[in-house]
Amino acid sequence: MDNINQTHISDDEYRESSIVDVPDLIVPDDEEKRLGRKSPLRTIILLSIGPLISQIVNALYGLVDSLWVAKTIGSKGVAVFGAVYVVEFISVSVSQYLCNSLSARASFLFGQQQGELCSQLYVDFIRVAFGFAILVPAIVLPITKPLVRWFGADEELTHMCFNYMIPKTCGAIINFVYMIGCGLIQAQGRSILYGAIQTCSFILNMAVFDPLLLLGLKLPIWSASFATVCSEFFPAFILLFLAFKGKIGIFPKFNMFGKKFSQQTFSALRVGFSSFVQSISLTLPVLLMQKYFNEAAKAIDIYDVAIQLWAVIEKLYQITGGICIAFSQGLLPTASYAYGAGRLNRMSKLVIHAYWLATSISTIFSLFMIALPSQIASIWSTEPDFIYWSKRLVPITFYSSVCFSSNYIAPTVLQAMKRVMASTLLSFLTLLLPIPVFSTILYFTKKDDPGRILYTYTMNDVYSFIVSLIFLIKPMKILCNSDQSASGEFVSSESSNDVNIEEYEEDNDGETNMEFDNNTSTMDVSVSRLD
Fold first, then answer.
1. I need a surface site. Which of 171, 188, 271, 508 has the fewest CB within 10 A?
2. Could you tell me the residue range of the domain that residue 188 belongs to?
3. Which positions, given as ranges, span the membrane (predicted)?
4. What 3-state class would DSSP assign to 116?
5. Any domain includes 515
6. For the chain, how many structural domains are there in total?
7. Is 3 part of a structural domain of the chain?
8. How far is CA 295 from CA 142, 265, 291, in A?
């Protein structure tokens, strides 16, 4: 394909370009079997099982931690989780960014039959993780006390929050290496292993380290976050060991740490940046919203109850969000693989199945939250005020959950198609911008109603659903209008690492024009659509 500027493919040639007829184009290796061989629905279900377990486990981390803290330290300890929610999520955002960036790039490389590049990519991400591990405590710890005071916490609660964040941030490198390993196995479609690793970590946290440190040794609040670090250390070490032993599809060497960073690493960090914006967008806008919520609670003298309920609501809301994130994570590697292999019609089906599955499951969960708020809240406390306000506040958050999945599926589709700017812009418009705007409007029109502030989530979900649909119209048209037999005909060993469909236009004569960007050359392909 060197020095070819334009190729016209006839109907017969087009029919012969399927994966069955051109086995040397896309080798049916392990990644092909996991990411490209099964039906779209089955692929999404299998690849989302691991992330779904992971997200539920991550949500249960917080729930179980808060339950152990409620049992051993009391309501003041539960209030820590509500007060520190935003700053704690900064570290989580970094780990998700590293995981998603590696997963998207590695699966794309596997789709283009360049899996040998993933070894250096993995090593580079380990090096990047150490850089972030220095930055996170340097940024988070100095802002924890001022931020918690700004939320209205007293000195005792402020001090407890700071102590809780010390192990969380200083041990961040464990979490980063752990999530990088999870991103690698997810990129290869090893969904069951992914879920098993996450479950192992959760069991260690729930059944070993939390009861040992909080109940057995009766240590203060910092032991709750230290338990999480300890529970992730063993799975992280196992994944690292397996990677360097060549047991999970790559063959990194220690001398790679001395080599310069791969171009694939910069591409991965750039493409995954939208997921970082997405994660940060879930936390920074909530700063202002939580401030308004606390001030409204103070106005009617329920601050102590409200801050505990905020912690419970956010932990429960993470389950709904986690369900949607799980299907977006399950979609990302197989969609990136399909896009890298040129299987656009298959990718469209993957997107549709991921969307309806995420929407259905998150909606069912939300119905339970709406119907049984007091019963669920009573797990943490049976105090009358706590139960009364849980009935009024908990359901509001879940009213618009039917629209929630688009917040995650849409940026994932754009990210898989290498539309970096569009994905980042969508994350900004749907996650970063609306929550501060809507919460400000709701607060200043009625300053003594904390429940009113929670309607910010409802307004945001509906708005984001509409904006996401607008961003997806053109990409989905490209994917849905591609012929079903297009399964890799534009991929070759000379293909660019960043294949990007820039234009997709339909002429009056029924021809479909697709233009691909290449670092070394540009290839325009005109293909007659087969009816």
1. 508
2. 18-488
3. 43-64, 79-100, 121-144, 164-185, 192-209, 221-244, 265-288, 316-338, 350-372, 392-410, 422-442, 454-473
4. helix
5. no
6. 1
7. no
8. 24, 44, 6
